[in-house]
């Protein structure tokens, strides 16, 4: 178990130079954009435009802040993505562009190398006490809003708890928070 504090996340430019990303976690540690097996990040999108292309990568986007955006993914119907939408998965090597619905947004971006890893992303709401039970060997729990305590670690907005080798282990959770459970599985 490793607590990744929001204040320690790495800030870096987008691959296409159009904005800034806050890298929450990457594997292997310290690799660049061309060499990761998986990556979890947040980005602020302030203008309409194209997405960076990542050959051989699958990605899932979720809207964290703002009104959302409409995604134009080659070969698919346009997708309207808002804070109320389920996380949206698509190939990161498909040409994609976005039009903002009404101003700047912040998104959560999860990417895995196709053929080596898969991932899933889901929202979890916590009000009081409960349990979270990841099904994969690698899981990250990102605190979006509020405060949550998991296994004695207190998460506030932007913090992330990384769990390894804990598939099917129940973790006690308490607080009042909106979280994202990100599960990554080697193929």
From TrEMBL:
Pfam families, A to Z: HutD
Superkingdom, natural source: Bacteria
Protein name: HutD family protein
SUPFAM superfamilies in alphabetical order: RmlC-like cupins
């Amino acid at each position: 178990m490793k607590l990744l504090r929001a204040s320690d996340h790495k800030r870096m430019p987008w691959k296409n130079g159009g904005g800034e990303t806050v890298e929450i976690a990457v594997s292997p540690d310290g690799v660049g954009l061309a060499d990761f097996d998986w990556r979890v990040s947040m980005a602020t999108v302030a203008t309409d435009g194209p997405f960076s292309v990542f050959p051989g990568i699958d990605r899932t986007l979720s809207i964290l802040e703002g009104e959302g955006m409409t995604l134009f993914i080659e070969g698919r119907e346009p997708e309207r993505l808002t804070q109320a939408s389920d996380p949206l998965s698509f190939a990161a090597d498909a040409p994609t562009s976005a039009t903002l619905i009404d101003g700047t947004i912040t998104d959560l971006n999860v990417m895995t190398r196709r053929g080596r890893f898969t991932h899933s992303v889901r929202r979890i709401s916590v009000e009081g006490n409960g349990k979270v039970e990841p099904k994969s060997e690698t899981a990250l729990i990102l605190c979006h809003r509020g405060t949550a305590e998991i296994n004695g670690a207190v998460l506030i907005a932007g913090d992330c708890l990384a769990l390894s080798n804990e598939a099917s282990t129940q973790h006690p959770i308490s607080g009042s928070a909106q979280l994202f459970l990100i599960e990554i599985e080697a193929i």
